[in-house]
Amino acid sequence: MNRRDFLTTASATSAALALNACNESDRKAIDYSKHPQKKTDKKNVYINKNKKTLIKLATSWPAHFPIMGTGVEKFAQRVKDVSGGSLEIKIYPKNTLVPALAVFDACSSGQIDAFHSGPYYWKGKNSAFSLYSGIPFGFTAEEINSWMTFGGGLELWREQYAKYNLHPFLGGNTNIQMGGWFRKPINSLADMQGLKMRIPGLGGEVFAKMGVNPVLLPAGEIYTSLERGVIDATEWVGPALDIKMGFYKVAPYYYSGWHEPGSILELTFSKHIWKKMSFEHQSIIEVCASEMNANMTSEFHHENIYALSKLQGLGVKLHNFPADVNIAGKKALKEVVSELSSKNEDFEKVYESINDYLQLSRAWSDVSLRNFLNER
Ligand code: CA
């Protein structure tokens, strides 16, 4: 079976494939000695209590930005508390030290020590990096965490980022994002043709193949562009953050989506700085990063619950894309993946790892989560 054919694979076939792949002889055993979060490099074990370590961390978010910004602030406080004040992380919100989307280069070159952002922003460096955020119709938050931590994702990511002197960690997950806000209803694929929509990343490339005209706009210009009809639609994140943008006032049709089913955020260190840190400080970062990843993921879920209820109270109507839009999306994804794989070996390698894992995971997710939610 062609590995890239998962989108059209019937569930029965995928279940059979999953069963085959689950034979012990085929199954990749988890080598805990190589596990990225279990490493025991004890070269620099002891903290010099008299010497404080200061880490300069820049983010792609404004100061105190809900969930992402505040989550990183909590992380920095936890690191300080847990280290007894011996490790301090100073946060530079976007544009206070480096521009929002210059954090990758600034950390790579050593101007800053660490950053919090999203891997899909760096697809211009290497298209494979967009895959670490997830793919349309791909992993849920739970599944991508599982692939990253136990399925080889984090190792691949670290191997590829190491070429840029970077060492990434999981830094939160937005959970399933909404398909976006539309000024007019989408009753069929025909209604998508020529639509100007703010949608970045792989989702944007997939929508482009479906006839949409993707537009990139800074966050501060989206509302006005939507209001004036310069764009016809926009995706953003989900109810928790969308409600603050006020899109419901100018584009009342709110669609559920599949273009970002579990986008991860990243906490990335300069590899040079990371290697210089004591083993204890490294361990503190690992534990606090893991806490941040879990907390931010839960906070998105929590805030989405209340924001969705509030949006419905404001009269927002929820919609699903019609079937022909979803079918066209799956077809478009195959084309985008095939094109990017043929141009970039790294992309092909990461996509294969994702696709192999997804084949297995969907069999379990279908029989457990999908059935459960249908009955709940
Ligand atoms: Ca988004």
Q: What's the gist of this structure?
A:
The chain is of the alpha/beta class.
Features:
single chain, 376 residues, alpha/beta, D-Maltodextrin-Binding Protein, domain 2, 6-stranded mixed β-sheet, 5-stranded mixed β-sheet, 12 helices, 11 strands, binds calcium ion
Q: Tally the helices: what do you get?
A: 12
Kindly state the number of beta strands. Answer: 11
What is the name of the CATH topology of the domain at 53-173 and 263-301?
D-Maltodextrin-Binding Protein, domain 2
Following the backbone from N to C, one meets helices and strands in this order, namely HEHEHEHHEEEHEHEHEEHHEHH
- N-to-C CA distance: 35 Å
The CATH superfamily of the domain at 53-173 and 263-301 is identified as Bacterial extracellular solute-binding protein, family 7
Question: Mind explaining what this structure looks like?
Answer:
- With 376 residues, the chain is of the alpha/beta class.
- The chain has a domain at 53-173 and 263-301: Bacterial extracellular solute-binding protein, family 7 (D-Maltodextrin-Binding Protein, domain 2, 3-Layer(aba) Sandwich), CATH 3.40.190.
- Helices cover 45% and strands 13% of the residues.
- The chain is built from twelve helices and eleven strands.
- The protein has helices at 11-21, 68-82, 103-108, 141-150, 153-162, 201-209, 219-228, 239-245, 271-276, 279-313, 323-343, 345-375, and strands at residues 53-59, 87-92, 114-117, 166-173, 180-182, 196-198, 213-215, 233-234, 253-255, 264-270, 317-319.
- The protein has a six-stranded mixed β-sheet, with helices on one face. A five-stranded mixed β-sheet has the order 2-1-3-10-4, with helices on both faces.
- Helix 8 crosses helix 10.
- The longest helix has 35 residues, at 279-313.
- It starts with 10 loop residues before the first helix and ends with a helix.
- Mean pLDDT is 90; it is low at 1-25.
